[in-house]
Design goal:
Layout (H helix, E strand, L loop, with lengths): L2 E4 L15 E8 L3 E2 L3 H10 L3 E7 L7
Parallel strand pairs: 1-2, 2-4
Antiparallel strand pairs: 2-3
């Protein structure tokens, strides 16, 4: 299977043009950050009827 991991770091990426079997989409980071690209990436992947997962990137607040 061919999969991708995407987040706001790939903003502007056109999933319609990509060949993949599944994608993992970043949803949040820490306690205050919601990834603004999450909804769009999720919507396009679902329209392509691909398998989709999403994740929360946890940060240690003591490490900055």
């Amino acid at each position: 299977m061919n999969g991708i991991d995407i987040s706001n770091n790939q903003e502007g990426l056109t999933l319609y043009d990509m060949d993949f079997d599944f994608c993992i989409v970043k949803a949040t980071d820490g306690t205050r950050f919601v990834d603004w690209t999450f909804k769009n990436f999720l919507s396009v992947a679902l329209q392509k009827t691909q398998l989709v997962g999403f994740y929360h990137f946890a940060n240690n607040p003591e490490r900055g």
